[in-house]
Design goal:
Layout (H helix, E strand, L loop, with lengths): L1 E9 L31 E8 L4 H13 L11 H4 L11 E6 L4 E2 L11 E6 H16 L20 E7 L9 H4 L10 E6 L15 E4 L7 E11 L3 E7 L5 E7 L7 E4 L6 E5 L10 E5 L5 E4 L16 E5 L4 E11 L2
Parallel strand pairs: 2-6
Antiparallel strand pairs: 1-4, 1-6, 3-5, 5-7, 7-8, 9-10, 9-17, 10-11, 12-13, 13-14, 14-15, 16-17
Length: 336
């Protein structure tokens, strides 16, 4: 089964390895096979194989079938794009965007949804991006045909996009088949306001803003959690909203190894898990916040963001000589 999607317009030559964080222009809506004529060459049809990249196809189909008209994207803050810690059983995920970042779109316009963002399996995300890169190089893709324009793809060249669902997991392609309609499964979000690039600490009043689909435009914010740990038994865990106000707290004087506890107070529950005896790195402290998508990390999780003051780590860890450890961690959370 194949779903026709859109013509996309390349912003920069892939031969130079350059790309843009602005995403791509979708020149038409789903099920339309007409190529919108633009300056440049028609490079044919890129067919994405959704088997092994189901969630990437799903994100694209959500944009095409469920978002009314528009596109937008920007560089995401650490907790959105880092590979997630999987010691609490969550799949390693990162941020996928459609249209893809190597293609181009118009400037951001308030009120328009020009890009779909989704946290998906890291392997599927890489496979989908690799398929597009192979098409642009002129390689024979897993499904469909090579590009029809000769030589290097350059600014102005464009092509059609289709999705081949043969062999794909139906539970991962619901927005392509329209099974269950367009109700958000908690993983879809998009940018709503463009200001300055996200920095640390996140301030929605002066920086780009995002919302989870289906929440009526409520902002995705940056919340935090502190842990005061004395040895292996005494714990005090507190959660804070985007303004730094404390919203919930739990204290325990006896806590078994590998035990977990829910800390209420934010729009959704944060779960803290003791992962064995105290170690200086903070690795014996695990966290998960289940909305807007499963975000999990450890006290020692190393991210890639240059924005926070701990060299990309999700948590700052302070140890004293008395067997006391303090952690401060930041993570994405939806507005109440």
């Amino acid at each position: 089964m194949k779903l026709a999607a859109a013509a996309v317009l390349l912003l920069q030559s892939m031969a130079t390895g350059s790309s843009t964080p602005e995403g791509a222009v979708l020149a038409e809506r789903a099920h339309s096979r007409d190529v919108v004529k633009r300056a440049g060459r028609d490079c044919g049809t890129f067919t994405m194989a959704c088997e092994g990249a189901g969630n990437a196809c799903n994100n694209a189909c959500f944009h095409i079938n469920c978002q009314p008209g528009g596109q937008a994207s920007t560089t995401m803050v650490q907790a959105f794009h880092d590979p997630q810690d999987n010691r609490l059983g969550d799949t390693t995920i990162n941020c996928d965007e459609w249209p893809m970042a190597t293609t181009r779109q118009a400037d951001f316009v308030p009120g328009q949804v020009r890009n779909s963002l989704r946290c998906i399996d890291q392997t599927e995300n890489s496979y989908a991006g690799g398929q597009l890169a192979a098409f642009i190089r002129g390689d024979l893709p897993a499904r469909g045909q090579r590009k029809t324009c000769a030589g290097t793809v350059v600014t102005g060249d464009f092509w059609q996009v289709k999705f081949d669902l043969t062999g794909a997991d139906p539970s991962k392609t619901r927005y392509c088949t329209q099974t269950g309609g367009c109700a958000n499964d908690q993983y879809q979000f998009h940018m709503t306001s463009k200001a300055s690039a996200i920095d640390f600490p996140y301030n929605p009043s002066t920086m780009n803003r995002y919302t989870q689909e289906g929440t009526g435009g409520k902002d995705l914010l940056q919340c935090s959690v502190t842990v005061h740990r004395v040895g292996d038994m005494a714990f005090n865990i507190a959660v804070y909203d985007n303004t730094g106000a404390k919203r919930g707290e739990k204290a325990l004087s006896a806590f078994a190894n590998t035990a977990s506890i829910d800390v209420p107070g934010l729009p959704h529950i944060l779960t803290f898990k003791k992962n064995g005896p105290l170690v200086a790195s903070g690795a014996a402290n695990l966290f998960v916040y289940r909305s807007p998508f499963p975000v999990s990390w450890g006290g020692d999780t190393q991210g890639s963001s240059p924005y926070n003051p701990t060299n990309g780590k999700w948590c700052s860890v302070t140890n004293s000589g008395t067997g006391t450890q303090d952690l401060l961690c930041y993570f994405p959370c939806p507005a109440a």
